[in-house]
Amino acid sequence: MQPDAEFIHEPAPGHPGWFTWTLDDDTRFNAVGLGPMIIRREGARSARVRLLDLERRHSNMHGNVHGGVTLAFVDVAMFATMFSVLGAQVSGSVTLDLHNQFIGAGQIGEPLDVLCEVMRETGRLVFLRGSVEQGDRLVSSFLGTLRKPSVR
Question: Is residue 67 part of a domain?
Answer without folding.
Answer: yes
